[in-house]
Backbone:
């Protein structure tokens, strides 16, 4: 395991802010990397993964966060300039189970996801691995 900045760098992206960013992109404008939380990343029968934040019970806790606003911009970039594709840093919450606090762990992965749907107002989105 490495730190968040190193995990993003390993996938060719930089974070706008190490503390609150949940996504980043490369200078080329086509490389987008998003943190997906391990507890919300679902295995799909037959292989692959699905991630769905629509109707998330904790939406109100993260809807107005700066990290969400930046993630929306990065997902729009992926949709508009990279055929909806983005790379994944898998995040795991700290020992208290709170991803918003210090101590969370981030790992660069070989997972590539395609954006399926995005609500640009709330930041809710769904994606499937390719």
Residues:
């Amino acid at each position: 395991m490495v730190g968040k900045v190193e995990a993003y760098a390993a996938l060719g992206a930089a974070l706008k802010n190490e503390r609150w960013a949940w996504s980043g992109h490369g200078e080329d404008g086509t490389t987008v990397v998003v943190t997906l939380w391990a507890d919300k990343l679902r295995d799909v029968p037959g292989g692959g993964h699905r991630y769905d934040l629509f109707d998330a019970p904790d939406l109100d806790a993260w809807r107005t966060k700066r990290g969400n606003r930046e993630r929306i911009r990065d997902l729009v970039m992926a949709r508009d300039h990279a055929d909806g594709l983005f790379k994944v840093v898998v995040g795991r919450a700290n020992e208290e189970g709170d991803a918003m606090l210090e101590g969370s762990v981030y790992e660069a992965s070989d997972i590539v996801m395609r954006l399926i749907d995005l609500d640009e107002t709330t930041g809710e989105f769904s994606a499937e691995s390719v």
Summary: The first strand starts at residue 14 and ends at 15. The CA atoms of residues 23 and 70 lie 7 Å apart. The two ends are 24 Å apart (CA to CA). The chain has a mean pLDDT of 92.
